[in-house]
Amino acid sequence: MKYHTSPPPSRTQSPYQFDSSVSPLPPPVSHRASCLSAATKRYKYLRRIFKFSQMDFEFAIWQMLYLFVAPQKVYRDFQYRKQTKAQFARDDPAFLVLVTGWIFVSSVCFALVMGLGFSSFILFLLYVVAVDMLLMGVLVATGLWFVSNRYLRHPTEPGQDVEWGFSFDVHMNAFFPALVILHVVQILLYNVVLHSDNFASHLLGNMLWTVALGYYFYITFLGYSALPFLKNTRVFLYPLTLLALSFVAVTASGVNLSRTLMEFYRQRILFSSHL
User: Fold this and answer.
1) How far apart are CA 138 and CA 131, in angstroms?
2) What gap in Å lies between CA 98 and CA 180, rounded to an integer?
3) Radius of gyration of the chain (CA)
């Protein structure tokens, strides 16, 4: 059955008319009903990325909170944006800026736990932002954008397609809870529990990874299910079965993914320092 996150608009309602029932979140500061080209949207988005006074941080914080407690409600706002601004993708970089801020805070925690110096911390921060967030985000978003447009569109909706910006937003929505779990909760528990070589540490560390990745797949599924012109979006839930089996197998084999992550980061820093 197709997963819907909001009721269809009324026949008598203009597609660009404000409807407070569509989104449970506070409305953004500004609204625009004009339809822009993809290039113009990218230009306006990037132009605003350093203009903090023009960003709606309060609205972005609400979205971050809802991603944990009721992520399906976040995508009601994406549908609302389509009605009011003729695009599903965000036009405000506030969410991306706040995620970067979370990465900075979590990187400080990692630096303290791993005993990094200032230069190593800067290198670590650049890696996480440039590679883990931006580069991987672009690659994943591009892959899902291609797959959804190529294989998941309804044949009866030839004029509809998935915006690349929306695919990137879906990835960032799914990335944020995983970031908090793996880069904040995990690091706070590392020296207390997770660094030990016993079954309880392995179980908790692997459970954090399973929950983080489970959030990622589920929120990705919600994102693409919110688009009425896509079909078979349940395929984004298929990895959950493999994830559950992997959790059992990895824990039974005595592997602690939390310790593996810390070792990976240490080796990355050491490798980069010798370049």
Assistant:
1) 10
2) 12
3) 20
**Residue 170 contacts by C-beta under 8 Å, 6 or more apart in sequence?**
141, 144, 219, 220, 223, 224
Report the C-alpha gap between 230 and 240 in whole angstroms: 20
Q: Which residue has the tokens 């590679």?
A: 131
Q: Which residues pair with 75 in a beta bridge?
A: none
The amino acid that residue 59 corresponds to is F
- SS3 letters across the chain: CCCCCCCCCCCCCCCCCCCCCCCCCCCCCCCCCCCCCHHHHHHHHHHCCCCHHHCCHHHHHHHHHHHHHCHHHHHHHHHHHHHHHCCCCCCCCHHHHHHHHHHHHHHHHHHHHHCCCHHHHHHHHHHHHHHHHHHHHHHHHHHHHHHHHHHCECCCCCCCCCCHHHHHHHHHHHHHHHHHHHHHHHHHHHHHHHCCCCHHHHHHHHHHHHHHHHHHHHHHHHHHHCCCCECCHHHHHCHHHHHHHHHHHHHHCCCCHHHHHHHHHHHHHHHHHCC
Amino acid code (one letter) for 188 = L
In the numeric block, which tokens belong to residue 2?
Answer: 């197709």
- 230 strand-pairing partners: 153
pLDDT in tens, 142-194: 999 999 999 999 887 667 889 999 999 999 999 999 999 999 999 999 988 99
Confirm whether pTM is higher than 0.85: no
d(CA 158, CA 173): 27
What does the chain come to in residues?
Answer: 275
